[in-house]
User: Fold this.
Amino acid sequence: MKKRRLTWWQVVLIIVVLFGLIQLIPFGKAHANPAVVNAAVWDNPQTATMIRDACYDCHSNETVWPWYSNIAPVSWLNQVDVDEGRSRMNLSEWPTDKAVQQNLVNRMIRVIQNGQMPPFYYVWMHSNASFTADQKAQLIQDL
Ligand code: HEC
Assistant:
């Protein structure tokens, strides 16, 4: 029996068709931004701007959904980040209890300090979320 192999253009065709098909999966398309219940407030306007630039897309109800967040599989990754980010800390659903607030601020300081947040791949796509060591130190001091 003759062995059949796919030609390169058949492989390309299959990839294109699969890419088209995954666009039909509804997950990650809703781009919901629920109402802001209680916005976190920062005394320093500079702090407010930096946090908005670097954290709001995943940790608030004011996510700016970029064009590529409409395209699977990136849309899926964006959705998971926002769902997880909001569930850990939501700057639009800020707690009213001072001790709980302080606990979150301490966590923010820790993850900014160790470079965990904002995630590196986010910074690639959002240059205004990229801070110098001095800016980071200032941000941490003002939080
Ligand atoms: C691209 C989305 C995204 C951005 C932007 C982002 N985060 Fe996160 N953040 C996440 C996700 C997802 C998690 C949960 C998984 C994890 O901990 O890595 C998280 C977790 C956290 C946690 C909880 C971690 C812990 O150990 O307690 C804190 C605090 C946090 N982020 C702070 C920030 C701060 C501050 C910024 C801005 C400087 C920021 N994040 C920017 C997605 C994001």
